[in-house]
Amino acid sequence: MTTNDEAFARAQRATPGGVNSPVRAYRSVGGTPRAIVAARGAYVTDVEGREYVDLVASWGPAILGHAHPSVVAAVQAAAARGLSFGASTPAETELAELVEHRVSLPGADGPRRPVERLRLVSTGTEATMTAIRLARGATGRDLLVKFAGHYHGHSDGLLAESGSGVATLALPGSAGVPAPIAAQTIVVPYNDAAALERLFAERGAEIAGVIVEAAAANMGVVPPAPGFHALIRRLTRQHGALMISDEVLTGFRVAPAGYWGHAAESWDPDLFTFGKVVGGGMPLAALGGRADVMELLAPLGPVYQAGTLSGNPVAVAAGLATLQNADAAVYERLDAVAAIVSAETSEALSAAGVAHTVQRAGNLFSFAFRESAPRDYDEVRDQEAFRYRAFFHAMLDAGVSLPPSVFEAWFVTAAHDDAAVARILDALPAAARAAAAATPAA
Question: What residue ranges do the domains of the chain occupy?
Fold first, then answer.
């Protein structure tokens, strides 16, 4: 039998760092990454045959649980018809119509449907990159505004003060990004209304767009302050810029219409980006928004975007089956499990005397090891992150797989039944005691 140590050593000889995405390397928490060979329902299994209750859920898309029978059947049927055609398919249109229908809310004059057109791509990075190009093409301006700690993929202009893997590796950005490209992105503190207003007062005529995570979930979960999205909407409209809401993580996970549909306040961005759930675990993402903006994309307009595998039929089948099965009962279960696990984890940490706050955005949640809830990236980084390392490994030893970084959200699935939840809860007291005993040098 191959061990995890052997699998990782072999991977390191073939792949930079032994991984194809940095956070998988466990650099934040230490130890040997688990090499996963199978997943079903709420569980994943490693090369040693050990099963874990999974709270990563492929970083979000496994909303129904791993290998959901309807999704697997749809993928198998699509694959049997052909893996890729290099041509349009009716299923692409069906998925676009389903997304456009989901992103809607009742209104006084009929449904609000801010997604009037949708373009399918292959990754969230590609979706956000295209949305930004579209904003620049629509406005004829160059400057982009993003928020510190928000992660929008790894394209050159978006890695300044990003969250996710960049935060985990404690990097300010990335080598290889030319200074003139980085200079086209202005980074503003998250949830800082005054800073955003000052920026627009000084440079509003130069700004093409503002991109914002619908709820920050790549520096841990940090929801927007009341009125913050509405302020972005007002300032961008006032100054002729576009608002881009990045729902790659939150879209169709925290609610049927994403965080936009979950939020108590009303704000309609010009563009949305989607990923994760929309592809059901396959490489598929999308951008969508107002028809007049979206129709600036080629072949109708001057903003070019293309992709040989965009709208891949197998990926589209997975996305359709996932969204079609993500009904009210699924969201009810997600919310219930998230509430139980987050509350019980907090109770265990409190019982062990560990200072922490629970960070929530719908059924997404995480924990910050500090006394008060962080509101921005600086406050997120000002925590006793070393405690998470001990907590993580105690949970892993007990058969519960958590995200291998304190800067990531926890993801539950509709397949987390009472038995899976009980295994998580049973592991918490010992893990909380391990966190309490941890030291910075540990």
Answer: 4-63+327-437, 69-325
